[in-house]
C-alpha cells in the first residue's frame, strides 16, 4: 500500500493547484483523476481572473489568489492576457452603485475607477448605444484554464508528485482512499472533486449548476476587454432555476468567448437551444455586432455550488485526516491558487494568510 503526505482526489484547476502547492512544500503527493486533467468544470470556465466584491469572504480569497496569479503573467502555456475588466451599466442606478464597488475594491488593494459613457465607447466602440458608463479594473486578466491545470500538475510532478490518471477514488477509508482497481492509498486525503464531492462526502451539500459557452472564429480587436454587465452578480449568486448574464471575453487568439448561463436541476450535458438563444440574445443586447460573427463551438459544463455560495476549503472534522477544496462555482479559476495556499497552510499548521473560517466545510454540518 503506497503512502503519501497528501492524496489529492481530482485534477481540475483547484486540485492541480493544491497538488502543486503541497508538492512544492516538499510533501509526498499523489493525484487521482479518472478523466482528462482539467476536463470537468475547468474545461467549461471562461478563465477570467476577477475580484468579486459582493461578499467580503469572496473578495478576500479572490484578492489573495490574484496576487499569486501574477507569477504566471509570463508563462506562455497559461495564455495569460491582461485585457482588464470593463463592467457595463445599462441604467443610471447601476452606475450609481459603482462608487461603493470602487471603494470596496480599493480597500482590498484592487485599483478600479468609474467611467462615464463617452469613455466607455472609446474603450469599446462596438457596445450598444445608450449605455450609461461603467467601471474599469485595468489590471485584471484571463487565462486558459485547462492548459493551466495541466501545467500545474506538471509542476507537481516535477516536485515528485505521483499521478494515478484514469483511476477513480470509490471510497474513503480509515487510512486513506480506495481506488476503482481495488488498490488503496494511505495518507491524508483532499477531496477536490467538484460536483462529485457528495459521492465521497455525502454530508456536505453540493448542487451542480449547468452553463453554456460559445466561442467564435477569430475576429481580432473587435472586443478589447473582458465585458460584464454590472448586474452580473445578481445572476451568478442568485438561486433562480435559470438565469443569464452578459459576459464576453476576448481571447489572445482573436476569438471571442461568450457566456454566461446558469441552470439548476438539469443533469443532461446536451446544449439547450432555448437557453443558448436566451444567453446569446443577452449578449447581443450589449454588443449587437456579435450577431454577425461565426460561432466555432458551443459546449456546456457543470459548476459545483454550495448552499451559501462559498467554497469548502479546509479540514472535514468528522473524518480524521480528510480535507476538502470544492464548491467554487464560477470563481474556481480565479481562486484556485489562493485556495491551494489556504489549504496547505492549514494542513501544515501555519498561520493562514486570510481568515479560513468562512470557507470551513463544517459550517454546513448541523
From TrEMBL:
UniProt keyword annotations, A-Z: Oxidoreductase
Domain FAD dependent oxidoreductase stretches: 5-345
One example GO MF annotation: oxidoreductase activity
GO cellular component: cytoplasm
PANTHER family noted in UniProt: FAD-DEPENDENT OXIDOREDUCTASE DOMAIN-CONTAINING PROTEIN 1, SARCOSINE DEHYDROGENASE-RELATED
Entry protein name: FAD-binding oxidoreductase
Organism of origin: Lysobacter enzymogenes
Amino acid at each position: 500500500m503506497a503512502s503519501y503526505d497528501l492524496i489529492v482526489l481530482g485534477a481540475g484547476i483547484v486540485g492541480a493547484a493544491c497538488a502543486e502547492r503541497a508538492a512544492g512544500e516538499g510533501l509526498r503527493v499523489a493525484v487521482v483523476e479518472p478523466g482528462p486533467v482539467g476536463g470537468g468544470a475547468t474545461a467549461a470556465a471562461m478563465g477570467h481572473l476577477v475580484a468579486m466584491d459582493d461578499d467580503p469572504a469572496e473578495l478576500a480569497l479572490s484578492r489573495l489568489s490574484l496576487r499569486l496569479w501574477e507569477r504566471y503573467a509570463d508563462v506562455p502555456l497559461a495564455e495569460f492576457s491582461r485585457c482588464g475588466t470593463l463592467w457595463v451599466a445599462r441604467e443610471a442606478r447601476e452606475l450609481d452603485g459603482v462608487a461603493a464597488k470602487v471603494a470596496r475594491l480599493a480597500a482590498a488593494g484592487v485599483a478600479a475607477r468609474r467611467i462615464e459613457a463617452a469613455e466607455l465607447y472609446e474603450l469599446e466602440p462596438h457596445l450598444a448605444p445608450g449605455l450609461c458608463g461603467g467601471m474599469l479594473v485595468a489590471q485584471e486578466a484571463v487565462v486558459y484554464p485547462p492548459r493551466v491545470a495541466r501545467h500545474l500538475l506538471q509542476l507537481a510532478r516535477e516536485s515528485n508528485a505521483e499521478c494515478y490518471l484514469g483511476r477513480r477514488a470509490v471510497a474513503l477509508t480509515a487510512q486513506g482512499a480506495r481506488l476503482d482497481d481495488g488498490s488503496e492509498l494511505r495518507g491524508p486525503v483532499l477531496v477536490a472533486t467538484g460536483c462529485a464531492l457528495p459521492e465521497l462526502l455525502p454530508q456536505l451539500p453540493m448542487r451542480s449548476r449547468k452553463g453554456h459557452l460559445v466561442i467564435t472564429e477569430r475576429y481580432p480587436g473587435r472586443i478589447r476587454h473582458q465585458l460584464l454587465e454590472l448586474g452580473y452578480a445578481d445572476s451568478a449568486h442568485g438561486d433562480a432555476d435559470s438565469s443569464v448574464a452578459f459576459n464576453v471575453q476576448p481571447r489572445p487568439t482573436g476569438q471571442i468567448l461568450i457566456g454566461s448561463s446558469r441552470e439548476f436541476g438539469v443533469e443532461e450535458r446536451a446544449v439547450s437551444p432555448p437557453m443558448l438563444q436566451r444567453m446569446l440574445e443577452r449578449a447581443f443586447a450589449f454588443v449587437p455586432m456579435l450577431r454577425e460573427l461565426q460561432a466555432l463551438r458551443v459546449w456546456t459544463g457543470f459548476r459545483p455550488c454550495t448552499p451559501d455560495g462559498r467554497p469548502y476549503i479546509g479540514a472535514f472534522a468528522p473524518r480524521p485526516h480528510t480535507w476538502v477544496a470544492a464548491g467554487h462555482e464560477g470563481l474556481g479559476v480565479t481562486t484556485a491558487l489562493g485556495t491551494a495556499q489556504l489549504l496547505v497552510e492549514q494542513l501544515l499548521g501555519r498561520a493562514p494568510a486570510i481568515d479560513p473560517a468562512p470557507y470551513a466545510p463544517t459550517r454546513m454540518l448541523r
